[in-house]
Amino acid sequence: MIYLKIKIWRAKKVQVIDKNKDYYDHCQFEFGPVDKTVTYDRRGSKILSEDEFFKYCIDRRIVNQNYYTHKYILLEVGCVQYILGFDNIKVNWIDRATDNYTISGDTFIRYSFNEGVHLCKAPVTLAHAVKKWKYDGKKYMSFLRSIQSPLDIQAVICNSEYAFENPILKNTQIPSIIPARDFYNALDNYFRSLYNDKTVEILNSDVDKAINHGFDKKISFRHPVK
Predict the structure, then answer these.
(1) Nearest CA to 182 among 49, 8, 23?
(2) β-strands 167-168, 46-47: how paired?
(3) Which residues contact 79 (CB under 8 A, 6 or more apart)?
(4) What is the longest distance spanned by two Cα atoms in the chain?
(5) Which residues contact 75 (CB under 8 A, 6 or more apart)?
């Protein structure tokens, strides 16, 4: 009887460097060691609560004035673009004198594109449409019906003033509409396309490694006071 030993090849995945953890981060460890030559440096990210996410995506003045039923925004993950829609939007006032309020609602995907085109500066970006589309309901809906590719989106997004780069989305509704593996694979494909012809490795100091594991560089390693 002949026994054959078969070695299963598992592709290494892009590593994510960040002290904040998002819902798709665990995917980098599903197939063995991460590939340190392909790195998503997400340091400086911000954790968004569901309320903060809706406040970024939805302008309360639009909701109150009922310009249109649905609200739309761009979420770009690598070379994949999602046009997100929002429905059942509710503004909950806490204190009108200080303009303190919360927003809630439902999030859904209106369009998605995966044509190898990256539009924004950061690997993961939330981007508003420019104001002329945002505040004119008829033109905005006409634009949405005319979207055929990412290049149609490029003409109406603002990469500077309105962009929210590298958000942590685990506390929003995004995990319920974009599976973790789909989100991570889009990032993995994007970074591999950047590094196809070169080896890139981001070196971390001991302090950086500690920060990535949740420690504070100022207080976590101080010597005890004698």
Answers:
(1) 23
(2) parallel
(3) 114, 115, 116, 117, 118, 186, 189, 190, 193
(4) 84
(5) 81, 82, 84, 124, 125, 126, 174
> pTM (2 decimals)?
0.74
φ and ψ at 76, to 5 degrees? -110, 130
From the list 60, 20, 59, the residue with the least C-alpha distance to 42 is: 20
Number of other CB atoms surrounding residue 70 within 10 Å: 14
In angstroms, rounded to a whole number, what is the distance separating the alpha carbons of residues 96 and 38?
48
Contact present, 173 and 106 (Cβ < 8 Å): yes
The string of pLDDT tens digits covering residues 68-86 is 445 678 899 999 999 888 8
- Look at residues 53, 52, 70, 51 and name the one whose alpha carbon lies nearest to residue 110: 70
